[in-house]
Amino acid sequence: MTDWGAIAADRLARIATCSEPGPGVTRLPFTPAHKDALPHIRDWMEAAGLSVAMDAAGTLVGRKDGPAGSGTFYIGSHQDSVREGGMYDGIMGVVLGCLAVEKCASDGHALPFSVEVLAFADEEGVRFPTALLGPRALAGTFDPEVLATADRDGTRLRDALAAFGGAPDAIGALARPRSDAIGYLEAHIEQGPVLETEDEALGVVTAICGIERHAVTFRGETGHAGTLPMAIRRDALVGASALVTAAHMAGLEHPDLRVTVGALDVWPNVVNAVPRAVSLTLEIRAPDDRLREDTGAQLTSMAQDIAARWSLDLDMSRVYRQPAQPCAPELRARLTDAVTATGGKGLSIASGATHDASAMADLCPIAMLFVRCRDGVSHVPEEHASAEDMGAAVAAMAHFLGHLQPTS
Ligand code: HGY
Ligand code: MN
Ligand code: MN
Fold it and tell me: For the residues of 149-188, what is the DSSP string, one character each?
Protein backbone atom coordinates (compact mmCIF):
# COMPACT_ATOMS: atom_id res chain seq x y z
CA MET A 1 0.00 0.00 0.00
CA THR A 2 1.64 3.26 -1.15
CA ASP A 3 1.93 5.94 1.56
CA TRP A 4 1.08 8.94 -0.62
CA GLY A 5 1.16 11.29 2.33
CA ALA A 6 4.67 10.27 3.28
CA ILE A 7 5.81 10.80 -0.33
CA ALA A 8 4.21 14.25 -0.30
CA ALA A 9 5.90 15.16 2.98
CA ASP A 10 9.29 13.99 1.72
CA ARG A 11 8.95 15.91 -1.55
CA LEU A 12 7.89 19.11 0.24
CA ALA A 13 10.82 18.85 2.65
CA ARG A 14 13.22 18.56 -0.27
CA ILE A 15 11.80 21.44 -2.32
CA ALA A 16 11.72 23.63 0.81
CA THR A 17 15.51 23.86 0.45
CA CYS A 18 14.95 25.82 -2.77
CA SER A 19 14.83 29.11 -0.93
CA GLU A 20 16.75 32.26 -0.15
CA PRO A 21 18.72 31.97 3.12
CA GLY A 22 16.87 32.76 6.34
CA PRO A 23 13.94 31.47 8.38
CA GLY A 24 11.25 29.47 6.60
CA VAL A 25 10.92 29.44 2.81
CA THR A 26 11.50 32.47 0.59
CA ARG A 27 10.98 31.44 -3.02
CA LEU A 28 9.97 34.39 -5.16
CA PRO A 29 9.13 34.09 -8.88
CA PHE A 30 11.86 34.07 -11.51
CA THR A 31 14.66 33.88 -8.97
CA PRO A 32 17.46 31.33 -8.44
CA ALA A 33 15.31 29.64 -5.79
CA HIS A 34 12.51 29.25 -8.33
CA LYS A 35 14.99 27.92 -10.89
CA ASP A 36 16.24 25.37 -8.31
CA ALA A 37 12.67 24.24 -7.68
CA LEU A 38 11.88 23.37 -11.30
CA PRO A 39 13.76 20.04 -11.49
CA HIS A 40 11.95 18.82 -8.37
CA ILE A 41 8.55 19.67 -9.86
CA ARG A 42 9.53 18.21 -13.22
CA ASP A 43 10.43 14.91 -11.49
CA TRP A 44 7.06 14.83 -9.72
CA MET A 45 5.21 15.43 -12.98
CA GLU A 46 7.21 12.81 -14.87
CA ALA A 47 6.63 10.27 -12.08
CA ALA A 48 2.91 10.86 -12.71
CA GLY A 49 3.36 10.07 -16.40
CA LEU A 50 3.03 13.67 -17.52
CA SER A 51 5.02 15.33 -20.29
CA VAL A 52 6.57 18.55 -18.94
CA ALA A 53 7.25 21.98 -20.42
CA MET A 54 7.45 25.57 -19.13
CA ASP A 55 5.07 27.99 -20.81
CA ALA A 56 5.63 31.63 -21.77
CA ALA A 57 4.36 32.85 -18.38
CA GLY A 58 6.80 30.66 -16.46
CA THR A 59 4.20 28.06 -15.47
CA LEU A 60 5.57 24.52 -15.44
CA VAL A 61 2.93 22.42 -17.20
CA GLY A 62 2.65 18.64 -16.91
CA ARG A 63 0.18 17.15 -19.39
CA LYS A 64 -1.19 13.72 -20.22
CA ASP A 65 -3.41 13.56 -23.30
CA GLY A 66 -6.78 11.82 -23.15
CA PRO A 67 -8.92 10.82 -26.11
CA ALA A 68 -9.29 13.53 -28.76
CA GLY A 69 -12.13 15.90 -27.94
CA SER A 70 -12.53 14.62 -24.38
CA GLY A 71 -11.56 17.93 -22.82
CA THR A 72 -8.89 18.86 -20.28
CA PHE A 73 -9.08 18.87 -16.49
CA TYR A 74 -6.63 21.20 -14.74
CA ILE A 75 -5.05 20.73 -11.33
CA GLY A 76 -2.50 23.04 -9.76
CA SER A 77 -1.32 25.75 -7.44
CA HIS A 78 1.68 28.06 -7.08
CA GLN A 79 5.37 27.36 -6.54
CA ASP A 80 6.17 30.72 -5.02
CA SER A 81 6.09 31.63 -1.34
CA VAL A 82 5.97 34.82 0.69
CA ARG A 83 9.16 35.97 2.43
CA GLU A 84 10.03 33.68 5.36
CA GLY A 85 6.90 31.65 4.61
CA GLY A 86 5.93 28.06 5.13
CA MET A 87 6.78 24.98 3.08
CA TYR A 88 3.16 24.06 2.20
CA ASP A 89 1.39 27.19 0.91
CA GLY A 90 1.01 26.72 -2.84
CA ILE A 91 3.54 24.00 -3.56
CA MET A 92 1.44 21.46 -1.63
CA GLY A 93 -1.24 21.76 -4.33
CA VAL A 94 1.31 20.94 -7.01
CA VAL A 95 2.70 17.86 -5.27
CA LEU A 96 -0.75 16.55 -4.29
CA GLY A 97 -1.99 17.09 -7.85
CA CYS A 98 0.91 15.05 -9.24
CA LEU A 99 0.34 12.28 -6.67
CA ALA A 100 -3.42 12.14 -7.35
CA VAL A 101 -2.74 11.61 -11.07
CA GLU A 102 -0.06 9.07 -10.17
CA LYS A 103 -2.45 7.25 -7.86
CA CYS A 104 -5.12 7.03 -10.59
CA ALA A 105 -2.53 5.45 -12.87
CA SER A 106 -1.27 3.05 -10.20
CA ASP A 107 -4.89 2.09 -9.47
CA GLY A 108 -5.11 1.16 -13.15
CA HIS A 109 -7.58 3.94 -13.85
CA ALA A 110 -6.95 5.63 -17.21
CA LEU A 111 -8.57 9.06 -17.06
CA PRO A 112 -11.04 9.50 -19.96
CA PHE A 113 -9.91 13.10 -20.52
CA SER A 114 -6.66 15.03 -20.81
CA VAL A 115 -5.18 16.25 -17.55
CA GLU A 116 -2.72 19.04 -16.78
CA VAL A 117 -0.93 19.72 -13.52
CA LEU A 118 0.18 23.36 -13.29
CA ALA A 119 2.92 24.89 -11.13
CA PHE A 120 2.20 28.61 -11.39
CA ALA A 121 5.15 30.95 -10.94
CA ASP A 122 3.68 33.91 -9.05
CA GLU A 123 0.52 33.84 -6.94
CA GLU A 124 1.61 35.78 -3.88
CA GLY A 125 2.41 39.05 -5.64
CA VAL A 126 5.25 39.62 -3.15
CA ARG A 127 8.05 40.42 -5.62
CA PHE A 128 6.01 42.39 -8.16
CA PRO A 129 2.89 44.52 -7.45
CA THR A 130 0.72 42.09 -9.39
CA ALA A 131 -0.13 38.39 -9.17
CA LEU A 132 -1.81 35.43 -10.84
CA LEU A 133 0.18 35.93 -14.06
CA GLY A 134 0.00 32.20 -14.90
CA PRO A 135 -3.70 31.44 -14.39
CA ARG A 136 -4.73 34.76 -15.94
CA ALA A 137 -2.70 33.81 -19.03
CA LEU A 138 -4.56 30.48 -19.33
CA ALA A 139 -7.91 32.17 -18.68
CA GLY A 140 -7.22 34.86 -21.28
CA THR A 141 -7.56 37.66 -18.68
CA PHE A 142 -3.86 38.59 -18.55
CA ASP A 143 -3.15 42.35 -18.79
CA PRO A 144 0.15 42.98 -20.66
CA GLU A 145 0.56 46.26 -18.78
CA VAL A 146 1.66 44.35 -15.67
CA LEU A 147 4.85 43.38 -17.51
CA ALA A 148 6.09 46.94 -17.01
CA THR A 149 5.78 46.76 -13.21
CA ALA A 150 9.04 46.45 -11.29
CA ASP A 151 10.28 44.90 -8.07
CA ARG A 152 12.04 46.77 -5.23
CA ASP A 153 15.34 46.65 -7.17
CA GLY A 154 13.76 48.14 -10.27
CA THR A 155 13.79 44.90 -12.27
CA ARG A 156 10.74 44.84 -14.56
CA LEU A 157 8.54 41.74 -14.58
CA ARG A 158 9.05 41.53 -18.36
CA ASP A 159 12.83 41.32 -17.97
CA ALA A 160 12.78 38.92 -15.04
CA LEU A 161 10.45 36.57 -16.92
CA ALA A 162 12.50 36.71 -20.13
CA ALA A 163 15.75 36.08 -18.24
CA PHE A 164 14.07 33.11 -16.57
CA GLY A 165 13.21 31.53 -19.93
CA GLY A 166 9.67 32.83 -20.32
CA ALA A 167 8.38 34.76 -23.33
CA PRO A 168 6.56 37.93 -22.23
CA ASP A 169 5.18 38.75 -25.66
CA ALA A 170 3.83 35.23 -26.17
CA ILE A 171 1.73 35.14 -22.98
CA GLY A 172 -1.37 36.32 -24.83
CA ALA A 173 -1.32 33.14 -26.92
CA LEU A 174 -1.55 30.88 -23.85
CA ALA A 175 -5.30 31.30 -23.42
CA ARG A 176 -6.99 27.90 -23.26
CA PRO A 177 -10.26 27.22 -25.11
CA ARG A 178 -13.18 27.34 -22.68
CA SER A 179 -14.95 24.60 -24.61
CA ASP A 180 -12.10 22.22 -23.80
CA ALA A 181 -11.80 23.09 -20.11
CA ILE A 182 -13.71 20.64 -17.91
CA GLY A 183 -12.67 22.28 -14.65
CA TYR A 184 -9.87 23.12 -12.22
CA LEU A 185 -9.06 21.62 -8.81
CA GLU A 186 -6.65 23.18 -6.33
CA ALA A 187 -5.59 21.53 -3.09
CA HIS A 188 -4.21 24.02 -0.56
CA ILE A 189 -3.32 24.16 3.12
CA GLU A 190 -6.23 25.88 4.86
CA GLN A 191 -4.14 28.70 6.32
CA GLY A 192 -6.68 28.99 9.14
CA PRO A 193 -7.92 27.13 12.24
CA VAL A 194 -11.34 25.80 11.16
CA LEU A 195 -10.44 22.23 10.17
CA GLU A 196 -8.26 21.79 13.25
CA THR A 197 -11.12 23.06 15.42
CA GLU A 198 -13.48 20.62 13.71
CA ASP A 199 -10.89 17.83 14.03
CA GLU A 200 -11.22 17.20 10.30
CA ALA A 201 -8.43 16.59 7.77
CA LEU A 202 -10.14 18.03 4.70
CA GLY A 203 -12.60 20.78 3.79
CA VAL A 204 -14.38 21.60 0.53
CA VAL A 205 -14.20 25.31 -0.29
CA THR A 206 -17.46 27.20 -0.93
CA ALA A 207 -16.01 30.49 -2.19
CA ILE A 208 -12.77 32.49 -2.35
CA CYS A 209 -12.71 36.03 -0.98
CA GLY A 210 -12.09 39.06 -3.18
CA ILE A 211 -8.94 41.16 -2.81
CA GLU A 212 -7.53 44.50 -3.86
CA ARG A 213 -4.15 46.12 -3.22
CA HIS A 214 -3.26 49.83 -3.39
CA ALA A 215 0.20 51.36 -3.71
CA VAL A 216 0.33 54.48 -1.53
CA THR A 217 3.07 57.10 -1.24
CA PHE A 218 3.00 60.18 0.99
CA ARG A 219 5.56 62.88 0.14
CA GLY A 220 6.60 65.74 2.40
CA GLU A 221 9.93 67.41 3.14
CA THR A 222 12.90 66.22 5.11
CA GLY A 223 14.88 68.35 7.50
CA HIS A 224 17.06 68.30 10.58
CA ALA A 225 15.31 66.53 13.47
CA GLY A 226 16.74 69.04 15.91
CA THR A 227 16.27 72.32 14.17
CA LEU A 228 13.18 72.02 11.98
CA PRO A 229 10.28 73.52 14.02
CA MET A 230 7.35 71.14 14.58
CA ALA A 231 4.70 73.58 13.34
CA ILE A 232 6.14 73.80 9.81
CA ARG A 233 7.03 70.16 9.28
CA ARG A 234 5.70 68.14 6.33
CA ASP A 235 6.42 64.75 7.84
CA ALA A 236 5.41 61.91 5.47
CA LEU A 237 5.47 59.33 8.24
CA VAL A 238 2.89 61.26 10.25
CA GLY A 239 0.51 61.00 7.31
CA ALA A 240 1.30 57.34 6.64
CA SER A 241 0.80 56.47 10.31
CA ALA A 242 -2.61 58.14 10.28
CA LEU A 243 -3.63 56.02 7.27
CA VAL A 244 -2.33 52.81 8.86
CA THR A 245 -4.49 53.43 11.91
CA ALA A 246 -7.51 54.49 9.82
CA ALA A 247 -7.19 51.31 7.73
CA HIS A 248 -7.14 49.11 10.82
CA MET A 249 -10.16 50.91 12.29
CA ALA A 250 -12.04 50.48 8.97
CA GLY A 251 -11.29 46.75 9.10
CA LEU A 252 -12.79 46.54 12.57
CA GLU A 253 -16.07 47.99 11.24
CA HIS A 254 -17.24 44.75 9.56
CA PRO A 255 -16.61 41.12 10.58
CA ASP A 256 -15.99 40.02 6.98
CA LEU A 257 -13.36 42.67 6.25
CA ARG A 258 -9.60 42.12 6.40
CA VAL A 259 -7.57 45.32 5.95
CA THR A 260 -3.78 45.14 6.14
CA VAL A 261 -0.82 47.45 5.66
CA GLY A 262 1.84 44.78 5.27
CA ALA A 263 4.79 46.65 3.81
CA LEU A 264 6.05 50.17 4.50
CA ASP A 265 9.24 51.99 3.42
CA VAL A 266 10.51 55.26 4.84
CA TRP A 267 12.98 57.68 3.23
CA PRO A 268 15.58 58.73 4.23
CA ASN A 269 14.86 56.39 7.19
CA VAL A 270 17.47 57.80 9.57
CA VAL A 271 17.09 58.64 13.22
CA ASN A 272 17.75 62.36 12.96
CA ALA A 273 15.96 63.44 9.78
CA VAL A 274 12.26 64.13 9.22
CA PRO A 275 10.84 61.51 6.80
CA ARG A 276 10.32 63.06 3.36
CA ALA A 277 8.52 60.07 1.80
CA VAL A 278 6.73 56.91 2.88
CA SER A 279 5.44 54.14 0.59
CA LEU A 280 3.07 51.48 1.86
CA THR A 281 0.83 48.69 0.60
CA LEU A 282 -2.85 48.74 1.54
CA GLU A 283 -4.68 45.43 1.09
CA ILE A 284 -8.45 44.92 1.48
CA ARG A 285 -10.23 41.58 1.39
CA ALA A 286 -13.89 40.60 1.71
CA PRO A 287 -16.18 37.83 0.49
CA ASP A 288 -18.52 40.57 -0.80
CA ASP A 289 -17.12 42.69 -3.66
CA ARG A 290 -19.36 45.68 -2.88
CA LEU A 291 -18.06 45.83 0.69
CA ARG A 292 -14.46 45.59 -0.54
CA GLU A 293 -14.91 48.26 -3.26
CA ASP A 294 -16.65 50.63 -0.82
CA THR A 295 -13.89 50.18 1.74
CA GLY A 296 -11.27 50.87 -0.93
CA ALA A 297 -13.07 54.08 -1.93
CA GLN A 298 -13.51 55.10 1.73
CA LEU A 299 -9.81 54.67 2.50
CA THR A 300 -8.77 56.46 -0.68
CA SER A 301 -10.83 59.46 0.39
CA MET A 302 -9.38 59.27 3.91
CA ALA A 303 -5.86 59.21 2.50
CA GLN A 304 -6.61 62.39 0.54
CA ASP A 305 -7.95 64.08 3.69
CA ILE A 306 -4.89 63.00 5.66
CA ALA A 307 -2.54 64.36 2.97
CA ALA A 308 -4.36 67.71 3.05
CA ARG A 309 -4.30 67.82 6.88
CA TRP A 310 -0.51 67.33 7.00
CA SER A 311 0.37 69.32 3.84
CA LEU A 312 1.62 66.22 2.05
CA ASP A 313 1.49 65.08 -1.56
CA LEU A 314 -0.25 61.75 -2.17
CA ASP A 315 0.17 59.15 -4.88
CA MET A 316 -2.35 56.32 -4.48
CA SER A 317 -3.48 53.76 -7.06
CA ARG A 318 -5.13 50.36 -7.02
CA VAL A 319 -2.50 48.05 -8.50
CA TYR A 320 -4.23 44.69 -8.11
CA ARG A 321 -7.77 43.41 -7.89
CA GLN A 322 -9.34 39.94 -7.97
CA PRO A 323 -13.10 39.68 -7.39
CA ALA A 324 -14.56 37.09 -5.03
CA GLN A 325 -15.17 33.74 -6.72
CA PRO A 326 -17.70 31.06 -5.77
CA CYS A 327 -16.62 27.47 -6.35
CA ALA A 328 -18.74 25.59 -8.91
CA PRO A 329 -21.65 23.81 -7.19
CA GLU A 330 -21.34 20.72 -9.42
CA LEU A 331 -17.63 20.28 -8.72
CA ARG A 332 -18.15 21.08 -5.05
CA ALA A 333 -20.74 18.31 -4.81
CA ARG A 334 -18.44 15.84 -6.56
CA LEU A 335 -15.50 16.80 -4.33
CA THR A 336 -17.66 16.49 -1.22
CA ASP A 337 -18.71 13.01 -2.37
CA ALA A 338 -15.04 12.11 -2.91
CA VAL A 339 -14.11 13.30 0.58
CA THR A 340 -16.94 11.37 2.24
CA ALA A 341 -16.24 8.30 0.10
CA THR A 342 -12.64 8.30 1.35
CA GLY A 343 -13.40 8.72 5.05
CA GLY A 344 -14.02 12.44 5.62
CA LYS A 345 -17.08 14.35 6.83
CA GLY A 346 -17.18 16.56 3.73
CA LEU A 347 -17.12 19.86 5.64
CA SER A 348 -17.67 23.07 3.65
CA ILE A 349 -15.39 26.04 4.35
CA ALA A 350 -14.93 29.55 2.94
CA SER A 351 -11.50 30.84 1.92
CA GLY A 352 -10.19 34.12 3.37
CA ALA A 353 -7.00 33.59 1.41
CA THR A 354 -6.88 34.10 -2.34
CA HIS A 355 -5.64 31.47 -4.74
CA ASP A 356 -4.78 30.69 -8.36
CA ALA A 357 -8.27 29.22 -8.54
CA SER A 358 -9.61 32.79 -8.26
CA ALA A 359 -8.25 33.49 -11.76
CA MET A 360 -8.87 30.02 -13.21
CA ALA A 361 -12.58 30.64 -12.50
CA ASP A 362 -12.57 32.87 -15.61
CA LEU A 363 -11.65 29.80 -17.69
CA CYS A 364 -13.70 27.00 -16.16
CA PRO A 365 -15.59 25.73 -13.10
CA ILE A 366 -13.31 25.60 -10.04
CA ALA A 367 -13.09 23.49 -6.92
CA MET A 368 -10.73 23.73 -3.94
CA LEU A 369 -9.79 21.19 -1.29
CA PHE A 370 -8.37 22.49 1.99
CA VAL A 371 -5.99 20.45 4.12
CA ARG A 372 -5.85 20.95 7.90
CA CYS A 373 -3.30 23.54 9.03
CA ARG A 374 -1.60 23.05 12.41
CA ASP A 375 -2.48 25.90 14.79
CA GLY A 376 -4.10 27.65 11.81
CA VAL A 377 -0.91 29.56 11.03
CA SER A 378 0.44 30.28 7.55
CA HIS A 379 2.82 32.69 5.81
CA VAL A 380 5.18 31.78 8.67
CA PRO A 381 7.97 29.17 8.97
CA GLU A 382 5.86 27.20 11.46
CA GLU A 383 3.18 26.42 8.83
CA HIS A 384 2.51 22.65 8.84
CA ALA A 385 0.25 19.97 7.41
CA SER A 386 0.57 16.31 8.39
CA ALA A 387 1.56 13.50 6.03
CA GLU A 388 -1.59 11.66 7.10
CA ASP A 389 -3.85 14.56 6.11
CA MET A 390 -2.02 14.96 2.80
CA GLY A 391 -2.50 11.25 2.17
CA ALA A 392 -6.24 11.72 2.77
CA ALA A 393 -6.20 14.57 0.25
CA VAL A 394 -4.50 12.40 -2.42
CA ALA A 395 -7.10 9.69 -1.88
CA ALA A 396 -9.98 12.15 -2.16
CA MET A 397 -8.50 13.87 -5.23
CA ALA A 398 -7.89 10.55 -6.99
CA HIS A 399 -11.46 9.47 -6.22
CA PHE A 400 -12.73 12.82 -7.53
CA LEU A 401 -10.74 12.46 -10.77
CA GLY A 402 -11.77 8.85 -11.17
CA HIS A 403 -15.46 9.77 -11.14
CA LEU A 404 -15.27 12.78 -13.49
CA GLN A 405 -16.73 12.56 -16.96
CA PRO A 406 -15.12 13.95 -20.17
CA THR A 407 -16.78 16.83 -21.98
CA SER A 408 -18.19 14.59 -24.67
O1 HGY B 1 -2.38 36.17 0.30
C2 HGY B 1 -3.07 35.19 0.05
O3 HGY B 1 -4.23 35.11 0.36
C4 HGY B 1 -2.45 34.03 -0.67
O5 HGY B 1 -1.70 33.28 0.22
N6 HGY B 1 -1.69 34.52 -1.77
MN1 MN C 1 -1.37 30.10 -1.56
MN1 MN D 1 0.13 32.58 0.36
Answer: -B-TT--BHHHHHHHHT--GGGGGGGPPPGGGEEEEEEEE
Summarize pLDDT for 97-113 with one digit per residue, the tens: 999 999 999 999 999 99
Which is the closest atom of ligand 1 to the Cα of 209? Answer: 3
Per-residue confidence (pLDDT) for residue 217, from 0 to 100: 98
Q: Which CATH class is domain 210-322?
A: alpha beta
- The residues spanned by each domain of the chain are 4-208+324-402, 210-322
Atom of ligand 1 nearest to the CA of 89: 5
pTM: 0.93
Average of per-residue pLDDT values in the chain: 97
208-256 tens-digit pLDDT: 999 999 999 999 999 999 999 999 999 999 999 999 999 999 999 999 9
**Rounded to the nearest whole angstrom, what is the distance from the C-alpha of residue 169 to the centroid of ligand 2?**
26
- Ligand closest to Cα of 210 equals 1
Going by C-alpha positions, the residue among 17, 66, 2, 15 that lies closest to residue 44 is 15
Please determine, for residue 299, whether its predicted confidence score (pLDDT) is greater than 80: yes
The pocket of ion ligand 2, defined by CB under 5 A, consists of: 89-90
Q: Which CATH class is domain 4-208+324-402?
A: alpha beta
Q: Give yes or no for a contact between 51 and 388, defined as CB atoms under 8 angstroms apart.
A: no
